[in-house]
Structures are given as C-alpha cells and as structure tokens.
Amino acid sequence: MKLRRIVDFLLMLVGSAIILVSYFYVDGQLRWIIITVSGTLLLIFLIIAIRDESRVLPRVGAPILHLPPTAKVTEVVLLNEEDQPLATWPLYGKVSMVIGRDVGENQADINLNSSTYASTVDVEHAVLNYTGGTWYVEDLASKNGVSVQTKKDGRKYRLASFQPCKLDSGDIIHVGLVRLLIR
Q1: Which of its termini does the chain have fewer beta carbons within 10 Å around, N or C?
Q2: CATH number of 75-182: 2.60.200.20, 1.20.1510.10, 2.40.300.10, 3.30.390.50?
Q3: CB distance 15 to 43 below 8 Å
Q4: pTM: predicted TM-score of the whole model, two decimal places
Q5: Domain ranges for the chain
C-alpha cells in the first residue's frame, strides 16, 4: 500500500476509536460533542481517501499507451511542412478539446479549417482529454485516422478508435495529414 493510503486508513481508524471510547466512557453532552466532531473528521478523511484513489485509477475499459513523462503539456501547435508554427491553442484550464473543423453549427475547439490539409480532417476527428494530470488523445472513428509520433523514440503509432493515448511534451499528433505539436 502507498504511504498516503496507510495514513488515511490510520486516521479513519483513530477517528472510529475516539467515537467508540466517547460513546462508552464519556457521559452527558460532552459525549455527543466528541462523537459529532470525530464523526465529521472521519467522514472528511474518508472522502479525501476516496478522491485520492479515484485520481489514480484509469478509466474502465480503455487501454492506454503509457510512456514515461517528459514535461508538462501546456499547448497545441499547428505545424506547417517546414515545422514552423501556424497557430497555437493553450490547454491551461481546459479538460477536453475537440479537434476538427468548424462546419455550420459544429464548432471544434481546435479548428483545423485553415490548415493546408483541412480536407483530410473530419468535423469531429479527435478529442484531447485531461485526467489525472495528463493529456490523452482519442480518435473519434475518423476516416483518415490519428497517429502519435513520440518524442521519446520518434516512432509513429496509429491509434485505434476510442482508445486513449497518453501525450507528452514534444509528441506530434497526426490528424489526417495535419501535424499538431504538443508542448
């Protein structure tokens, strides 16, 4: 067990012991004050333990390509053929961003209409999701697919639809023929 889980367990155990001792050995109104305060603290520690545990667990049913982290991801950059930036989208404060093209009422958070190869991008091509302090990309069953070229080994991995892939700073997402640098 991780140290954090052990501490949470011990705090809940101590809170339970205080409640039991107060119930059997303390008389009058002081008994109920101690039980109320200890019960409230016990509930708070239980909620904290559950929240910490839920941040560690991956989403059920979705295999994830894990690569060692290199740096914190802060923005997405549209690259041209000469690897020069054409547009950037900040990721700060976001939890999800749809990659695609603005068409009619459909609005993409990362709009690739202005890119040279916009015709290879679906209206809703892919999605970036932030969870557990990490960004992931998923292909939304697009026609031309999504691939990730990792900075770590330079290899290009084709994604299966609706299967998240962890992103690190320096990775390049290939959305159709459009390249997006993660930094």
Answers
A1: N
A2: 2.60.200.20
A3: no
A4: 0.61
A5: 3-56, 75-182
